[in-house]
Amino acid sequence: MSEQVSKQKADTSGRLAVVGDRELVIGYRLIGIDDTFIVTDEEDASKKIQELYSSGEFGLIIASNSMRDKLSSKFIAEIEESIEPLVLFMPSQKETAEEDKESIAALAKRVLGISIEVN
């Protein structure tokens, strides 16, 4: 009987869920991940991540980095201590573009000695 319980645990721990803005979620849907959830509302984002975390059905939950700010500090502390499920916050395409703009401006300042504004 204990083998059956551990087998059930192993089966669910391999599941992956992705929750976040459209830019992050669409890519995972295209590669065949079924458990993807697009959320745009702050309250929905927090509820969905907590729901997935508490369900016991997933071993890995990937969420948009912007969702992290929408979670309570108590819940963030809990998920940072958790190994299963593991919750990873990934930058969306929008966030990455902003980081790229900053790094190009910083590079121009260092190499050319001038400040530029990247649009």
UniProtKB/TrEMBL annotation:
Membrane topology: Peripheral membrane protein
Highest taxon above the source species: Archaea
GO cellular-component term (any): plasma membrane
Pfam family, one: ATP-synt_F
Protein's cellular compartments: Cell membrane
Magnesium among keywords: no
One Gene Ontology term of the molecular function aspect: proton-transporting ATPase activity, rotational mechanism
Keywords of the record: ATP synthesis, Cell membrane, Hydrogen ion transport, Ion transport, Membrane, Transport
Gene Ontology biological process terms, A to Z: proton motive force-driven plasma membrane ATP synthesis
Subunit structure: Has multiple subunits with at least A(3), B(3), C, D, E, F, H, I and proteolipid K(x).
HAMAP family for the chain: ATP_synth_F_arch (MF_00312)
Family according to the record: Belongs to the V-ATPase F subunit family.
Chain's role: Component of the A-type ATP synthase that produces ATP from ADP in the presence of a proton gradient across the membrane.
Protein name: A-type ATP synthase subunit F
Species of provenance: Marine Group I thaumarchaeote
Top-level taxonomy: Archaea, Nitrososphaerota, Marine Group I
